[in-house]
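Cross-check.
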Amino acid sequence: MPDSNFLAAMMRAPQTRTALAVLAGLVVATCLGQRATGAPPTSSAESRTAAKQSRPFVPEKLLRPFRGKREDLRHRALDEAEQQHLSDAQLGPTLWQAIEPALKSPRVPESLLRAVRLYGRLADPESASRLLTMLDASDLRVVMAAVDILAERRPPASLVRLTMLRDHAAYNSSFAFRHAVVSAVARFQEPASVAFLVATVGSSDGQLKYEAVRHLVRLTGENFGGQVGEWKKWWESNRDAFRPPAAAATAATGVRRSAEPAMWDSSLPKFFGLPIYAKRVVFVIDKSKSMLSAADGISRLDTAEKELEAAIRQLPDDAWFEVIAYNDSEQRFSGKLVQATPSQKSGAVRFIYSLVAERTTDIYDTLADALQFDENIEAILFLSDGVPTSGTVVDPTAILNNVTKQNASLRISINTIGFDAQGAAGEFLQKLALDNFGIFQIIR
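Predicted model, tokenized:
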């Protein structure tokens, strides 16, 4: 190590002081240059990222995977398109080249559905006619995706085509399809929308009738509930002078719920105060250990059992139902939807009072199974008193994303009931309902 006297002598040397002054000048100049430009020096990693983001869009790079069979490559190509080329004018026409050949396929891969949804986000000049072409697709999921996009964009002539979908072969057989069409038509603030919805109220029941009425309340400012005759009488007197109220346009752009129907044409069963409009319904009940929590000697499970018994006893004879109790596994009453006959109701009540609260809470797998339980389920009434603690997926955000994605082509109303669900638990259950055509109810 150099002697301290030697270092001191070096610092006093004229040539050393000159060299240091030059070095300091260079540092100051560099700093001033950076301050003038307002940006620090670009690192090699940043340079590589910028170069990657500035790569030109190559249509063939996106189309090639769609000619093959590898789903992972198709998703990777769509990832790149979304991340780097959304503003490229060639992206829309290129996606159409991938979509059009698949329109006659009875079952398209998930990547193709994703391509349709991505196409719906783009400003392609030909999008209106191409979206209308998608309404003739063989895969009903493609048709429903196009229906949703048309409802969002509302191009000229699309309302007529959407109302004509009531003649589609799937309209009578698929609840999800009927729900998609009714919801799309209701996005148009037009007399034809009101006429379509009034006709739907008169020709349907269950959850679909409720959805049509709810949209009519928003579009017209009137509230005749499920009274078909009153809606028809009002429309006959007002169709020529009809103008939607100003609030209707605002409500259609993103608010999930407007005023609830004021009355119905029959008595409705209720579960924790929530009216049950659906005729094909699944009750999903928490029986984890936390349901033993009690107030005044009555546990949460005791309360849930009594409420559930009352709801099932009130179901109309033409309703179909199932009960699924869950903790970290599932326990089912029947294993299938059963008609709400007196004997089936009594059997369900015996099942309910046999439940024992224990173990942890698997929300994701329970909901995923319930959604696939029957292709025409109209509503799920989901009760929980906490956040997920076990199962394939535990993170609440991931559960929300996965369930909502799975339900996109099913359109089941997931109504959530939160037992003392506060903070994160309440927020989770509320968003689960809001994103899945449902209502959230908190029980204290």
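The longest helix spans residues 14-37. The two ends are 75 Å apart (CA to CA). Passed to J.P. for a second look.
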